[in-house]
Design brief:
With about 325 residues, the chain is mostly helical. About 80% of the residues lie in helices and about 0% in strands. It folds into 2 domains: about 35-75, no CATH class; about 90-325, Orthogonal Bundle (MetI-like fold).
Length: about 325
């Protein structure tokens, strides 16, 4: 296991370098000149040329890439053109908000997806199975932006149960406040988090439930499961100890992929609910043609996705020793 872990971790280095190159190349094909955007359409060519020199945009692209990589190795993502602060500071101020909503959405998706998937597999062919998979199909079919607007209109505007926009106290800070007796802070934080997390989590819950059902049906049809039932093993133990445990491999893979999708979906969700995360910051940076900031945000998203995939590979290797031989 140690050798497999080291080998997979080593492969992360060229992957991250490839991500840096691809992100840098993609930023160059975005239409518009940052200098012109910053100075305005009425700026003189001399002023634009001077600003391009100051920003280093007049250098050849390979030189710009070399400087960018060299700065990255020192932990420097550059400076935001419009915000006038280091990119790492701008990202750091928003990163935890995005992680908070993505992790909460993933937790909801896993809890709901496992419950529906296992129930549908155990009750195969029944009305419960049909209803569960119908809910899953509806969840897969709904666009994130439409679901977000629908939930906002229903739960925030019509019923006034949850706040429509904004973020309360960060969840970890709110949990700490609750330990000191200030439960209202935690409740307010959860109420603000509920709508964005539900919006992101519904689609993932639908996907997870379908994968869990399919994997459970395949596992429950195996000979060792029939043998366990013939030996009189308790039904709940057959389902969870023999069935679910051995059905986890494809489910873990889809959960890892869903986390990456949740990060991407955060761009739309944060814009809808005014959630102050990286997604909302990315929309603003793109509209302003703030290349260093966009590069930094995309690089952070890609790196997080790569690290999650590494963790998924290691979990798969722990669940199934045959994976280590690949």
């Amino acid at each position: 296991m140690l050798h497999y872990t080291l080998r997979r971790t080593a492969l992360l280095v060229p992957l991250l370098f490839g991500i840096v190159v691809v992100v840098f190349a993609l930023m160059q094909i975005i239409p518009g000149d940052p200098a012109v955007v910053l100075l305005g359409q009425d700026a003189t060519p001399e002023a634009v040329a001077a600003l391009r020199t100051t920003l280093g945009l007049d250098r050849p692209l390979p030189v710009q890439l070399a400087f960018y990589v060299a700065n990255l190795l020192q932990g420097d993502l550059g400076d935001s053109i419009f915000r006038g602060e280091p990119v790492i500071v701008a990202i750091g101020s928003r990163l935890m908000a995005t992680v908070e909503v993505a992790v909460t959405a993933l937790a909801l998706a896993v809890a709901i997806g496992f419950a529906l998937g296992v129930l549908a597999a155990v009750k195969r062919g029944s009305i419960v199975d049909t209803a569960s998979m119908l809910c899953a199909q509806i969840g897969v079919s709904m666009p994130v932006f439409w679901l977000g607007i629908l939930l906002m209109f229903w739960l925030a505007v019509q019923l006034n149960w949850l706040p429509a926009v904004g973020r309360g106290e960060p969840l970890l800070s709110a949990a700490g406040a609750a330990l000191t007796g200030r439960w209202g802070v935690l409740v307010d934080s959860v109420r603000h988090l509920a709508l964005p997390a539900m919006t992101l989590g519904v689609y993932s819950a639908a996907v997870v439930s379908r994968v869990v059902r399919a994997s459970m049906l395949e596992t429950l049809s195996q000979d060792y499961v029939r043998t366990a039932r013939a030996k009189g093993v308790a039904p709940w133990r057959v389902v969870f100890a023999h069935g679910l445990r051995n059905a986890l491999l494809p489910v873990v893979n889809i959960i890892g992929l869903r986390f990456g999708e949740l990060l991407g979906g955060a761009v739309l969700t944060e814009s809808i609910f005014g959630w102050p995360g990286l997604g909302q910051l990315a929309v603003t940076a793109i509209s302003q043609r703030d290349i260093p900031l966009v590069q930094g945000i995309v690089l952070v998203f890609a790196t997080m996705f790569a690290v999650v995939n590494l963790i998924v590979d290691l979990v798969n290797a722990a669940l199934d020793p045959r994976v280590r031989l690949e």
